[in-house]
Amino acid sequence: MRPIVSLELVGNEKLDFDLYDDKGQIVYKKGEALTPGLLIKLCNEIKVFVKEKQEILKHKPIISDQVAKTLVSISKNILKKIYANEKQDLAGCNEATEIIFEEVSNNLEKIDCISQLKIFDEYTFSHTVNVSAMSTALGITLGLYENELKELALGALLHDIGKMLLPKDILNKSAKLDAEEFEIIKSHSLIGYRYILDNINLPDKIAKVALDHQENYDGNGYPNGLKGTEINFYAQITAIADVYDALTSNKVYKRAVDSDKAIDIMLSESIDRFNPYIFSKFMKLVDYKNRRNNAIS
Predict the structure, then answer these.
(1) Residue 26 lies in a domain
(2) Where are the alpha helices (DSSP H) in 158-252?
(3) How far is Cα 55 from Cα 103, in angstroms, rounded to an integer?
């Protein structure tokens, strides 16, 4: 069974599978209404798990369980402090950045597919680590210097922290979000950017990863509708890793797809959404070219 966190239940009126407590007892039956009262119970009173098939993997993960546990623990601490409006510990952010940089640098030549850098835990926490690790790998491929790679790793690690600062009633809402509430959710980019600058005191180019990671290369993203090179370079890298990890990770409301399928989905958007040169480098890291019989040059 896989543990889940409250953010994974946001926006669902009901689920098509059961939820369990830590003793394996059903605490939610599939198809039942996910009422506010039940959501509060599931989020705050008990630990909740979902039974699921093993993650869709074609290659063995290369990051050790112990390192993965350390990174998840740091990620939890960072996000929970933000959620609780407590003073952020920059040392924890830097520790995670150093670990990710070392793990990726030491293992990149050993992997067949970038998905081997992924770790698996509660999605909310593992996602930040995975996006950072895969962004770092892509940065190495693009020829970034060590100091740039560490800036990229840190920016990617913090890319979604603005979501933790959104109104809790919207984050914990079980029903579908209306248009106004969805606009509030979209504000997480700007909120995260301001938090990184004002509360963690990081440089603007690192904070811009949070601000720009939802911008599209064609100018149709948000929050500022930036286009092409107007978008922070680190954010252009992070955006690709962000989407890939979301597609290839099991979430409480959506099952993972395998790496090939994820790239197929991203290819349908790449002309508009992603920097085409950076995306071509990413496809090589995913080994998509070989698995498609050299269909992509």
Answers:
(1) yes
(2) 168-171, 179-186, 188-195, 204-212, 233-247
(3) 21
Structural domains in the chain (count): 2
Q: What is the pLDDT of residues 143-180, one digit of tens each?
A: 999 999 999 999 999 999 998 888 877 766 656 778 88
Task: Answer yes or no: do 32 and 170 share one domain.
Answer: no
In DSSP terms, 49 is beta-bridged to: 3, 20
Q: If we measure between CA atoms, which residue out of 230, 237, 261, 235 comes closest to residue 248?
A: 261
Q: What are the two backbone dihedrals, phi and then psi, of residue 28, each rounded to the nearest 5 degrees?
A: -150, 125
pTM for the model stands at 0.78
Residue 38 tokens, joined: 């039940």
CATH of the domain at 271: 1.10.3210.10
User: What does each C-alpha distance from 101 to 47, 66, 108, 157 come to in angstroms?
Assistant: 32, 16, 10, 12
Q: Extract the tokens encoding 182.
A: 């969805």
Question: Among candidates 95, 74, 141, 93, which has minimal Cα distance to 114?
Answer: 141
pLDDT (tens digit per residue) in 44-102: 656 776 665 434 445 667 888 899 889 989 988 888 888 777 778 789 999 999 999 99
Residue 58 lies in a domain: no
CA–CA distance, 29 with 295 (Å, rounded to integer): 45
